Amino acid sequence: MRWLRAARDCGLADWCLGAGVVRTLVWNHLHDLPPDSHAPADVDFVYFDAADLTAEREAAIAHRLRGAAPDAPWEVVNQARVHLWRRDGGMAPPPLASLAAGIATWPETATCIGVSLDDDDRLRILAPHGLDDLFNLVLRPSPGLRDPALYAQRLLAKRYTDKWPRLRVLPSPLS
């Protein structure tokens, strides 16, 4: 909750913590592991601000978050500017229209989940592909993933089934 409060205190209208930080907490719980087992490499703070596409704004937010919660390995990305640097299969994706549209393109459906905190400390969940795969321990590529090779690379690099052996891994429909 402390990380969520630090994120909320940045004062952005459209933001969440997502990807591995959410997936890891849930899958650790479903495998009866301590919450800090298999800690994610970073804490993804994502937001959507089409009015400010500068890397400097992302850096300023990251600086603020590191000051508020220095124990978190913050990764800050404005989803409105992803098309400026990301390449899928060598091609730039089109500009995104919203935070949800950005999250929907993340590699696996169980990773396409964001959590934010409102002013009354209530959790808000953003899950463009739903929560079923997360809670049913299913790993499959996101329909928004444009490069199927990325899914295969992530399966090898992240060693999901070594960490969470009850996962059911589905192949990419394009592989």
Could you explain the architecture of this structure?
The chain is an alpha/beta fold and 175 residues long. It has one domain: Beta Polymerase, domain 2. It is built from seven helices and seven strands; from the N terminus they run H-E-H-E-H-E-H-E-E-H-E-H-H-E. It has helices at 2-8, 20-30, 55-68, 99-103, 132-135, 148-158, 160-163; strands spanning 15-18, 43-47, 74-78, 114-117, 123-126, 138-139, 168-169. Strands 3-2-1-4-5 form a five-stranded mixed sheet. A hairpin with a 5-residue loop joins strand 4 (114-117) and strand 5. It is globular, with a radius of gyration of 16 Å. The protein starts with a helix and ends in a 6-residue tail after the last strand. The mean pLDDT is 92.
Task: Name a few traits of the molecule.
single chain; 175 residues; alpha/beta; Beta Polymerase, domain 2; 5-stranded mixed β-sheet; two-stranded parallel ribbon; 7 helices; 7 strands; 15% strand; transferase; NTP_transf_6; Nucleotidyltransferase family protein; transferase activity
Brief sketch in words of this structure:
The chain has helices at 2-8, 20-30, 55-68, 99-103, 132-135, 148-158, 160-163; strands spanning 15-18, 43-47, 74-78, 114-117, 123-126, 138-139, 168-169. The chain is α/β, with parallel strands linked by helices and 175 residues long. The strands form two sheets. A five-stranded mixed sheet has the order 3-2-1-4-5. A two-stranded parallel ribbon has the order 6-7.
